[in-house]
Amino acid sequence: MGVVKVYLCVYNWLLFAGWLQILVSAVKALQQSGPSGVYAAVEKPLQIWQTAALLEVFFPLVFSFLWFLVLRRIVYGIVRSPVMATLPQIGSRIYLTWGILFSFPQVQEHWLVTSLVLSWSITEVIRYSFFALKETFGYTPRFLLWLRYTTFFVMYPTGICSEAGLVFVTLPFMQLSDLYCLRMPNKLNFGFDYYYMSIVALLAYIPGSPGMYTHMIRQRKKALGSKPKAS
Predict the structure, then answer these.
(1) Confidence class for position 88, pLDDT limits 50, 70, 90
(2) Is 39 in the active site?
């Protein structure tokens, strides 16, 4: 087993275990204390395992110049997903994890956190178990393939609505805060307002979400296709 194969196996099994821990913890907290207790139960593992997903864009960004060299097949083997399709999704999740939930405790007990965490964790448990089995044994059960390319019909809208909803309910707290803002005048002669940046990010969901959704529908057709006709 080569280095790339070992890396993919370890990475996918670790992320599967991490997201399974998040899912189980979220369900237990929901049962015991309701939506208000979910974030406290998953905060640390959510931050760890969601941030670990940056590795999925790290390799293509760092080694992009190798695509036209002899190592092209190695780099392609490390990262199977196109970086331009993966980056927006991971970027939005990192933004929600650190830029919203970590930075503004006022929204940590909001019920949208529950739908967000459940949507993310269910999706990722399926996705990483799919790739972990594929990389380790060379195949995946048909039911897991079906789940991988079908559950997004529900999980994607609930996840997107939860993300956008949390950004929206956080805006009033951002407006009253100087967190991550750079006010003028300053030596750099440059200003930055996190509140307005977040509004732009929120508006980006409008054109971005349908595109990602239709992309997943196309991927489903390619992955599942139609059953071969009996001869």
Answers:
(1) confident
(2) no
